[in-house]
Amino acid sequence: MAVPVEWYLLLSAAMFAIGVMGILTRNNALLFLMSVELLLNAANINLVAFSHQWGNLTGQTFSLFTMGLAAAEVAIGIGIILVLYRNFSDVDVTTPTSLRW
Questions:
Q1: Distance separating alpha carbons of residues 95 and 101, to the nearest angstrom
Q2: Strand-pair partners of 28
Q3: Domain for residue 72, yes or no?
Q4: 9 is a domain residue
Q5: Which member of 40, 47, 80, 89 has the lowest number of beta carbons within 10 Å of its beta carbon?
Q6: Exposed (0-12), middle (13-18) or buried (19+): which is 73, by Cβ within 10 Å?
Q7: DSSP-based three-state secondary structure for 20
Q8: Is residue 70 part of a domain?
Q9: Using one digit for the tens of pLDDT, what is the confidence trace for 41-74?
Q10: pTM for the full model?
Q11: What are the TM regions of this chain, as residue ranges (predicted)?
């Protein structure tokens, strides 16, 4: 018995909502990165679910590209967080209020 695609859509919508709430309510840069990962994984669930439903591999291929994008985003995000911590001794994104030297 197969799981209906609607269940995957509900899971994806819940993950997306949690990710959006994490971005809107948190001040920690690490939690921002985790919330963006939730958003990307929600999109991956949709891509794979519809790919499986329609019987082609296009959605799964796009999902692999999205995973590569997530890896690049984390690499750059960790670099930004390290610079933020080095300059302000905190990873709170509200601390730096300007881009001056």
A1: 14
A2: 92
A3: yes
A4: no
A5: 89
A6: middle
A7: helix
A8: yes
A9: 999 999 999 999 999 999 999 999 999 999 999 9
A10: 0.86
A11: 7-24, 30-50, 62-85
